[in-house]
């Protein structure tokens, strides 16, 4: 009788653990399908990148905020060798945006900017957009404007970008 009781107790414990695990697995699956896991992963990746580059990015947003201009729709990407790209729309306008490139070395930055824009610095017209590029050491900051609203923030960007690169000595991580 005692053996049956112990066996039943063990079976109940195993079933309750299995049921608990099943609920956890179901919860995790629901998170995956609701894009919550993707959003959390993106946030973690962005925060991981911000650990090294956070001050530059925060100062960029603050500089525009002081002019009553919001940088919105932040995206973050990292390539297979660790070069980072952050992109923001200006005031939620898809035709006006700022891209911050942080490369592993000045040489990688020069090569990358040449591949993307055909130049490392200055005014460049590529792919129907007008780009203003400021670079120093591993970092490039690019203002891109397209369509009818070309250059809405050109003068402001010309003031902010070189100042940021100078303050951060061209290194996002400093």
Per-chain topology:
Blueprint: H1 2-33, H2 36-66, E1 71-78, E2 84-90, E3 93-102, H3 106-117, E4 122-126, E5 129-136, E6 139-146, H4 154-167
Antiparallel strand pairs: 1-2, 2-3, 3-6, 4-5, 5-6
Provide a short characterization of the protein structure.
The protein has 174 residues and is an alpha+beta fold.
What does this structure look like?
This is Lipoprotein. It comes from Paenibacillus lactis 154. Strand 1 (71-78) and strand 2 form a beta hairpin. Strands 1-2-3-6-5-4 form a six-stranded antiparallel β-sheet, with helices on both faces. Helix 2 packs across helix 4. The chain is elongated. The mean pLDDT is 82. It contains four helices and six strands; from the N terminus they run H-H-E-E-E-H-E-E-E-H. It has a domain at 53-167: Protein Transport Mog1p, Chain A (3-Layer(aba) Sandwich), CATH 3.40.1000. The chain is α+β, with helices and mostly antiparallel strands and 174 residues long.
By DSSP, the count of extended strands is 6
Which strand order spans the largest sheet, edge to edge or round the barrel? Answer: 1-2-3-6-5-4
CATH architecture of the domain at 53-167: 3-Layer(aba) Sandwich
Radius of gyration: 24 Å
| CATH overall fold name of the domain at 53-167 | Protein Transport Mog1p, Chain A
Main sheet makeup:
6 strands, antiparallel
Category from helices, strands and their pairing = alpha+beta
Helix-strand pattern = HHEEEHEEEH
Give the overall form.
elongated
Mean pLDDT: 82
Protein name: Lipoprotein
Organism: Paenibacillus lactis 154
